[in-house]
Amino acid sequence: MRRILASALLVFFAAIGVSGARAASEYPSQPIHLVVAYPPGTATDLAARQIVPKLAQLLGTEVIVDNRGGAGGIVGTQAVARAAPDGYTLLFATGQTQAINLSLYAHLPYDPVKDFTPVARVAQTPMVLVVPPSLGVHSVDELITLAKSKPGTLNFASSGAGSSAHLSGALLGSEAGLSITHTPYTSAAQAFSDLMNGDVSLMFYPYLPLSPLIQAGKLVPLATTAAERPTYLQKVPTMTEAGFKDFLVVPWFGIYGPAGLPKPIVDKIAAAVDQTLKDPDTQKRLLAVGTDPDFGGPDTLAQFTRDEIARYRKFVALSGAKVE
């Protein structure tokens, strides 16, 4: 009886292997929807669109950027979690959707680990700390000195409670021992306007939307939040170089499928993403929108996701942000 059972199991697993191999060889046979859980024109949307041309070429099918914005990335993310695990609906996810939201929302309608299959880490886009010229500071040290000389008078803008901009400002206040007030905005354009006018003292934000204002001298960059200086801001120090050892708040992008996505399909997509990010033209396209290529395979992304969830749990607690 044991031999019969063992033989049956061998046949079963062999059948699964053949089925998975066949699925990978036939995949893709139709267009792939790459869901972006944010509106067109956002940093996430722009990053996704830079990899799509080469990715589509390598996979041999159309890759459609499918914008499904709403509720801090929840709408589009949840849609992918509920999709069929066939490789034709993928999520171009962010650190917000896969790491921060779990600690931010009291009732998140998806589990960023259990409900998804990690496919590939794609890129990161460092934040930039900027201030208006009227503030009269040109380094992080000078900013801290000013803030301490006028406790409670400086404020920082963000794109909303629990956003990377909010967490960065809260972390600066905590690490430097500053009393600075959080001022959330629903419009980045309004935040930039108030910042240039001096109504807001400082802000952390991705480089691309800030670049015209920085280049025009309307905002002063003091530091970036990555581990190393990005190629497009080589003259600007990192927060680590400014004396903040653990100050790493770097929005990132990764591709995930629904839970249960077959491994052969996962491996096929991941290999195509790897080749895409090695393509010189794609690299230039990403750097042009303030995004650094940063590939990691399925296992790397799985561990990275768990690590980021734990790391951002501390930052969200520190900020006091909570969304019901």
The CATH H-level superfamily of the largest domain is Bordetella uptake gene, domain 1
Global outline: globular
CATH architecture of the largest domain: 3-Layer(aba) Sandwich
Give the CATH level 1 class of the largest domain: Alpha Beta
- Helix and strand composition category: alpha/beta
Number of domains: 2
Count of helix runs: 11
- Report the mean per-residue pLDDT as an integer: 92
What is the H/E string?
A: HEHEHEHEEHEHEHEHEEHHEH
Radius of gyration: 22 Å
CATH topology of the largest domain: D-Maltodextrin-Binding Protein, domain 2
Q: Spans with pLDDT under 50 lasting ≥5 residues? A: none
- Fraction in beta strands: 15-25%
Main β-sheet, in a few words? 6 strands, mixed
Compute the number of strand runs. Answer: 11
Which sequence of strands runs across the widest sheet? Answer: 2-1-3-10-4-11
Key features of this structure:
11 strands, five-stranded mixed β-sheet, single chain, 2 domains, D-Maltodextrin-Binding Protein, domain 2, alpha/beta, six-stranded mixed β-sheet, 11 helices, 324 residues, globular
Structural write-up:
This protein is an alpha/beta fold and 324 residues long. The protein has two domains: 28-125 and 251-319, 3-Layer(aba) Sandwich (D-Maltodextrin-Binding Protein, domain 2), CATH 3.40.190; 127-233, D-Maltodextrin-Binding Protein, domain 2. Helices cover 46% and strands 19% of the residues. It contains eleven helices and eleven strands. The protein has helices at residues 2-26, 43-59, 74-81, 95-104, 140-149, 164-176, 188-197, 207-215, 263-278, 280-288, 298-319; strands at 32-36, 63-67, 89-94, 116-124, 127-131, 155-158, 181-184, 202-206, 220-224, 252-258, 292-296. The strands form two sheets. The protein has a six-stranded mixed beta sheet, with helices on both faces. It has a five-stranded mixed beta sheet with strand order 7-6-8-5-9. α1 runs parallel beside α9 (263-278), α2 crosses α9 and α6 crosses α11 (298-319). The longest helix is centred in the N-terminal third of the chain and has 25 residues, at 2-26. The radius of gyration is 22 Å and the shape is globular.
